[in-house]
Known about the structure:
Layout: E1 9-10, E2 22-30, E3 42-51, E4 54-60, E5 76-82, E6 85-92, E7 95-97, E8 100-102, E9 105-112, E10 115-122, H1 128-136, E11 139-140
Antiparallel strand pairs: 1-11, 2-3, 3-4, 4-10, 5-6, 6-9, 7-8, 9-10
Amino acid sequence: MLPANVTVLRPTTLPDRFTAGTLLAACQDMPGDPEYGFTEGVPAYTMVYSVSDENIAFVLNSGHSAWGNTPGPPTSIERVTVRGVEGTLTTLAAHVAGGRALPPSYALSWRENGQSYSIKVNSARLMPEAIRAIAEGLTSVR
Length: 142
């Protein structure tokens, strides 16, 4: 379980095609891995909403096995304002990996209340503007 003082954010609006979210992990004491910049002992969660060929992951502090690795360097990294603070939008263009066509990937990341939050998306239909709107509509569960 997560500590009571950790803000848990949930989306208030998602495209209708997405199913109910699946909690992949929530832990109070995430194991650290300094090689990847993860700090031991921080709270973390990963919540994923999906449809056949699209995924949206809501991640706190990198989450536990935060829903896949990016298969290559980003196509672009843009500084953006997210929920009133500076953040980044990282884009990886559609590509082929392992003989399979993969849709574009996006990661919208920011810090809020001392925690790192991200929305990670694999989708050819969900554009960055929509992802930013989803972030602005997040609400605190506690």
